[in-house]
Amino acid sequence: MMLQGEDDQESVTPPPSQPPNNIQPILTHVTKFNLHTKGEFLCYLNSVPTTMMADTGSARNLVSDHTLALVMGEFYLNYLEKKAFKPILDCNSKPLRILGALQLKVAIGKLCIEAEFLCYQGSNKTALLGFLTMHEEHLVSILV
């Protein structure tokens, strides 16, 4: 039952920081992993060769400011969109310092997509491809 003057629109909530626990994602298309790569693979961010890791435990795509400087040039900060983000924790439960977000073209083999990446302060050379992008682009199948 709706009262007069109420909207039937639901409030918009930001995407979760982690996928639900009852989902078991299975990679269907990213690449063939070699035994000693630890899940890392070569991709291209804006046509620049980059090491990436498919991280089904992360909802967002992440790239360090060190890697972004290589991809976008020394003035990469000019491209970042400032937004408010929920805290993102590293593997030691410490919050990452998020500098901003930007859209990057990602090429993995014959697949070419555009995705939002959060830029964090750090020197890691491996970018993370998060679960939400992999799900939206049908790179994973989901078993519930």
Supply database-style keywords.
mainly beta; Cathepsin D, subunit A, domain 1; six-stranded mixed beta sheet; 2 helices; globular
In summary, what is this structure?
The chain is mainly beta and 144 residues long. The protein has helices at 65-72, 131-136; strands spanning 24-27, 40-45, 48-55, 61-64, 98-108, 111-120, 126-130, 140-143.
CATH level 1 name of one domain: Mainly Beta
CATH H-level superfamily title of one domain = Acid Proteases
Query: Major β-sheet, in short?
Result: 6 strands, mixed
In DSSP terms, counting alpha (H) and pi (I) runs of 4 or more, how many helices? 2
CATH structural fold name of one domain: Cathepsin D, subunit A, domain 1
Provide the succession of SSEs.
Answer: EEEEHEEEHE
How far the N terminus sits from the C terminus, by CA atoms, comes to: 33 Å
**How does the helix and strand content classify structurally?**
mainly beta
Helix proportion range: under 10%
What is the radius of gyration?
A: 17 Å
Strand order of the largest sheet: 4-6-5-2-3-7
How confident overall, as mean pLDDT? Answer: 78
Uncertain stretches: 1-6
